[in-house]
């Protein structure tokens, strides 16, 4: 009898953890390339994230001052002026010389509206659209483009009929980044169990949407994982998940700007979490930002990388490479 050929198994791509770059609880970050330069998009607080307060703040959802948004030029470490004060969470999407940003419509967690901004210089911002979603509670969001269609992922905890348990991912689509339509209710990710910290990616010539998400483990431990789908209904989970797992490499020092107090805080912190993973490709390398800590208010921003294109990196979690 002829033996059946063994199915090739994917091998997890090599990720090099570079270490911690910030200790000020800024964990909602997205790396992206704009006009040929690498930026980091951040959700911050005007007062509480001032340098003199960075080591004294608690969980950012409990802070008194309003959240706002900014970009940081990674090479120079220079921040742009803040904008969208009083808006929570956000995601940037660059197309040509225009930077688009979607954010929650209120300062509170679980907004029931989405607000859209755009700029050509990261200084002057135009609020150009708003989408009301009464009864919904929206947290993080992501945008990816496939062909001429933009797809937006939203992380939700309500309404109950759309969300099996907090948190669940739903999807909207647009052809112009202005007018968005909610996709049918069967277009949903992981309604039967927790899913958090979303990211969404698509590539020319590839029929799959790739979704990064946070998988919950016993004892309030979390790790970044990945799944993919052609229709946003049927999902394939990577057999080599998780993408990132917490370990001692998270404590490495990856910034010369970390103070002695920062370094001691890194050394002493409880680490049971790798979350909020976001990717971009810059100069042929996959840049990875993620958070580590206790997922209860003590969080650190860290950086990792894959020495290759982002599409190659994501496909490797599902398909064997030569």
Topology overview:
Blueprint: E1 16-22, E2 29-34, E3 37-45, E4 67-73, E5 78-79, E6 90-95, E7 98-104, E8 113-119, E9 126-132, E10 137-146, E11 149-158, E12 168-174, E13 181-182, E14 188-189, E15 196-201, E16 209-217, E17 221-229, E18 236-237, H1 260-268, E19 274-282, E20 285-293, E21 299-306, H2 310-315
Antiparallel strand pairs: 1-21, 2-3, 3-4, 4-5, 6-7, 7-8, 8-9, 10-11, 11-12, 12-13, 12-14, 15-16, 16-17, 17-18, 19-20, 20-21
Task: Describe the model.
The structure is a single chain. By secondary structure, the chain is mainly β. The chain has two helices and 21 strands. Strands 10, 11, 12, 13 and 14 form a five-stranded antiparallel β-sheet that branches. A four-stranded antiparallel β-sheet has the order 1-21-20-19, with no helix packed on it. It has a four-stranded antiparallel β-sheet with strand order 2-3-4-5, with no helix packed on it. Strand 17 and strand 18 form a beta hairpin.
């Amino acid at each position: 009898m002829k033996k059946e050929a063994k199915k090739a198994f994917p091998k997890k791509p090599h990720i090099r953890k570079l270490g911690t770059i910030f200790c000020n609880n800024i964990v909602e970050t997205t790396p992206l390339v704009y006009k040929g330069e690498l930026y980091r998009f951040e959700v911050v607080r005007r007062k509480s994230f001032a340098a003199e307060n960075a080591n004294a703040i608690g969980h950012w959802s409990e802070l008194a001052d309003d959240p706002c948004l900014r970009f940081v030029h990674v090479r120079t470490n220079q921040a742009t002026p803040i904008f969208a004060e009083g808006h929570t969470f956000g995601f940037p999407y660059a197309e040509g010389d225009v930077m688009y940003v979607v954010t929650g419509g209120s300062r509170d967690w679980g907004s029931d509206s989405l607000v859209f901004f755009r700029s050509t210089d990261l200084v002057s911002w135009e609020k150009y659209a708003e989408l009301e979603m009464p009864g919904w509670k929206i947290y993080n969001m992501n945008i990816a483009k496939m062909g001429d269609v933009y797809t937006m992922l939203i992380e939700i905890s309500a309404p109950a009929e759309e969300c099996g348990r907090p948190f669940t991912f739903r999807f909207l689509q647009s052809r112009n980044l202005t007018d968005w339509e909610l996709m049918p209710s069967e277009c949903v990710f992981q309604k039967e169990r927790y899913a958090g910290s979303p990211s969404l990616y698509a590539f020319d010539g590839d029929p799959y949407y790739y979704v990064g998400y946070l998988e919950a483990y016993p004892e309030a431990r979390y790790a970044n994982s990945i799944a993919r789908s052609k229709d946003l209904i049927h999902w394939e989970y990577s057999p080599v998940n998780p993408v990132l797992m917490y370990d001692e490499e998270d404590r490495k020092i990856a910034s010369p700007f970390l103070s002695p107090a920062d370094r001691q805080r890194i050394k002493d912190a409880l680490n049971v979490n790798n979350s909020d993973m976001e990717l971009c490709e810059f100069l042929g390398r996959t840049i990875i930002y993620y958070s580590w800590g206790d997922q209860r208010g003590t969080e650190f921003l860290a950086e990792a990388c894959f020495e290759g294109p982002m599409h190659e990196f994501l496909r490797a979690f599902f398909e064997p490479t030569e």
